[in-house]
């Protein structure tokens, strides 16, 4: 009996970890911290690093929870093992958890400076508005998600009152690549999207159209990441690392053209996340040691 209760508690704890998508949330936290370092070209104070990481991590975690709350009907079809549709976390518990994390993220941002607080507030409102209304509107919804993904780099810039053009370039690249990733994600979600009348490109115009549009965003992003090289804003180390995510995006484009079923789309969106992380490492190494 005791072991049974322990098993229930363990599954509950794991569900609370799973629902925040820890990999995504850590990436956003690191995105802020790395941006602070790049903007300053030196290490900021531990307090600024900690508050920056915490804000990015907590706000992203909260957005993941709110996304799952509004997606619970779709997830019964697309992802029944997620914490809410599986019954491990109730909707009420998810709301409480999400509100606590938003509060923690906003407080962390406020403790840095007013600019960061405003950026955090705008990003949170965009995320909430997306989930409440604009998720149904296909490409507009994809843009809103990508806006939130690009914001941590501007947040980090303002956290240290930096004026880094490099971070602006990376924000644009992140926006483009993530938009392509969101479109690919729509291919995997078609069945569930029909239930909620989400007008994704894949559902409205077909899988092939979604693949072509996603590839366009991937391809546009490639020359953007080479702008810092052309203007000598980064060291050669940047080029040595950024070439891998560039090859990755070309590979994804090729793979999606060959096969674009649900399974391929799910694998592709996971790999693109890895490429984005590698690009983040490239800009940290190349921007810091230019």
Describe the structure.
This protein has 290 residues and is mostly helical. It has 2 domains: 11-158, UbiA prenyltransferase (Tetracycline Repressor, domain 2, Orthogonal Bundle), CATH 1.10.357; 164-290, Up-down Bundle (Four Helix Bundle (Hemerythrin (Met), subunit A)). Helices cover 83% and strands 0% of the residues. The protein has 13 helices and no strands. The protein has helices at residues 2-18, 22-40, 46-70, 72-78, 91-112, 114-132, 139-159, 165-188, 190-196, 201-205, 207-230, 236-258, 262-288. Helix 8 runs antiparallel to helix 11 (207-230). The mean pLDDT is 90.
Task: Give a topology summary.
Layout lengths: L1 H17 L3 H19 L5 H25 L1 H7 L12 H22 L1 H19 L6 H21 L5 H24 L1 H7 L4 H5 L1 H24 L5 H23 L3 H27 L2
Major sheet, described briefly?
A: none
User: Gap between N and C termini, in Å?
Assistant: 60 Å
Oligomeric state as shown: single chain
Helix content: over 70%
> Which class best fits the helix and strand makeup?
mainly alpha
Number of helices: 13
The number of domains is 2
Order of helices and strands: HHHHHHHHHHHHH
Which term fits the overall shape? globular
Low-pLDDT residue spans: none
Q: Mean pLDDT score, rounded?
A: 90
CATH evolutionary superfamily of the largest domain:
UbiA prenyltransferase
């Amino acid at each position: 009996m005791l072991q049974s209760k322990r098993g229930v508690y363990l599954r509950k704890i794991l569900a609370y970890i799973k629902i925040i998508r820890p990999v995504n949330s850590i990436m956003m936290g690191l995105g802020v911290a790395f941006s602070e370092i790049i903007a300053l070209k030196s290490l900021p104070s531990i307090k600024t690093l900690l508050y920056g990481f915490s804000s990015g991590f907590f706000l992203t975690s909260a957005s993941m929870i709110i996304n799952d709350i509004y997606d619970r009907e779709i997830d019964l079809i697309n992802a029944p093992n997620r914490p809410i549709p599986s019954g491990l976390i109730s909707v009420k518990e998810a709301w409480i958890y999400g509100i606590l994390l938003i509060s923690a993220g906003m407080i962390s941002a406020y403790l840095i400076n007013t600019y960061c607080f405003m950026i955090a507030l705008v990003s949170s409102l965009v995320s909430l508005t997306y989930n409440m209304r604009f998720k149904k509107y296909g490409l507009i919804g994809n843009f809103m998600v990508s806006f939130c993904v690009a914001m941590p780099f501007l947040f980090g810039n303002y956290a240290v009152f930096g004026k880094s053009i490099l971070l602006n370039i990376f924000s644009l690249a992140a926006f483009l690549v993530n938009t392509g990733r969101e479109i690919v994600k729509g291919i995997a979600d078609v069945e569930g999207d029909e239930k909620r009348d989400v007008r994704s490109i894949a559902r409205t115009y077909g899988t092939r159209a979604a693949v072509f549009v996603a590839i366009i965003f991937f391809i546009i992003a490639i020359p953007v990441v080479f702008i810092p090289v052309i203007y000598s804003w980064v060291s050669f180390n940047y080029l040595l690392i950024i070439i891998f995510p560039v090859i990755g995006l070309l590979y994804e484009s090729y793979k999606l053209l060959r096969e674009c079923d649900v399974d391929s789309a799910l694998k592709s969106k996971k790999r693109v996340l890895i490429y984005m992380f590698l690009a983040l490492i490239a800009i940290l190494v190349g921007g810091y040691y230019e």
